Amino acid sequence: MTELKIEAVSKHYGPVRALEDINLTVASASRTAIVGPSGSGKTTLLRILAGFETADQGRVMLGETGMVAPGFSCPAHLRGIGIVAQDGALFPHLSIAENIGFGIERRDPRRQQRIEELAAMVELDPAMLKRRPHQLSGGQQQRVALARALAREPRLMLLDEPFSALDTGLRETMRKAVSAVLAKAGITTILVTHDQAEALSFADQLAVLREGRLVQAGPPRTLYEQPCDADTAILLGEAVMLNASLQGGFADCALGRLTLHSARQGAGRVMLRPEQIRIASSTETSSCTARVLDVEFAGATGSVTVALNSDEAIPPLHLRLSRLDLPNPGDVMHLAVEGKVHALA
């Protein structure tokens, strides 16, 4: 069980600010996902944690051990950190067993037993241990990479876009498998990803970087429902943003009178997610009417583009509805909002 503390970490490449005053705590045995647009500093932070880059200032503590401090950087091989990269980075000339056991002392009498235990932990067929990496699928290679990283019994696991090269269905399966393995092992984990759905489903804590700064961190659901600003809202998924009059815990806008997460006063903007908007009956007083412009069927759900009849100045809204509720282009329907909406700063 090892807590990670990042305190006031900064990194510059000449005049370019890669990271600026990053403060983040990752609880023992928990999973934190770091997300942000390209160039936000995600990879730089990961490399500093791994020991591949030195910070200009700040501290990094892993449990009671200092990894980074002013004038000091613990060598990468002494940090007790495991890394799984996007491509797995397996040794092509070694067998799967030799890849898994690469970090285990060859004179260790339990070496072979440990390799077999690790293979079983990541649900890898024992028959595959004699194969070479090119004889395995992408998902199997990632399982090998995870087993190899676990072999050194790391205190911290760094996952650098480990699922991005996999097909969609396999990506979800691997994400769940890796999450289960790390949870069972009780290893503190950081995931860096561009996939917001992956980050939201994998992590206990979500951290959003932008232009080298940490703009918001907290439980994934909190950030999804109550982002600190419009850019963060869009980064984490589709969002509907409307001008509103805020008063007494309510927002009056083109979609009617909506309940706020927190009380605000005056003119402002509210944010809600498309899945909060549903088809309502004409008798619901809080509903508004909209004309269907386009419908796109996508299996279990569909994308519906509507124009609000209440305000021609508002751009068309894009909704996600169950296939059972999909209207036809040209239909006029009543809309209502489920749950609370968030007032943006």
Low-pLDDT runs = none
Number of helices: 8
The pLDDT mean sits at 90
CATH-scheme architecture of the largest domain: 3-Layer(aba) Sandwich
Give the radius of gyration. 24 Å
Number of strands: 21
Proportion of residues in helical segments = 10-25%
Number of domains: 2
CATH class of the largest domain: Alpha Beta
In order across it, which strands form the biggest sheet?
Answer: 7-8-9-3-10-11
SS class: alpha+beta
CATH topology heading of the largest domain? Rossmann fold
Describe the overall structure.
This is Iron(III) transport system ATP-binding protein. Keywords: ATP-binding, Cell membrane, Ion transport, Iron, Iron transport, Membrane, Nucleotide-binding, Transport. The chain has helices at 42-50, 96-100, 111-121, 138-151, 168-185, 196-202, 220-225, 230-235, and strands at 4-13, 16-26, 31-35, 57-62, 65-69, 72-73, 81-84, 156-160, 188-192, 205-210, 213-218, 240-247, 250-253, 256-259, 266-272, 277-280, 288-298, 301-308, 317-322, 332-337, 342-343. It has eight helices and 21 strands. 22% of the residues lie in helices and 36% in strands. Helix 3 (111-121) crosses helix 4 and helix 4 packs parallel to helix 5. Strands 7-8-9-3-10-11 form a six-stranded mixed β-sheet, sandwiched between helices. Strands 2-1-4-5-6 form a five-stranded antiparallel β-sheet, covered by helices on one side. Strands 14-13-12-15-21 form a five-stranded antiparallel β-sheet, with no helix packed on it.
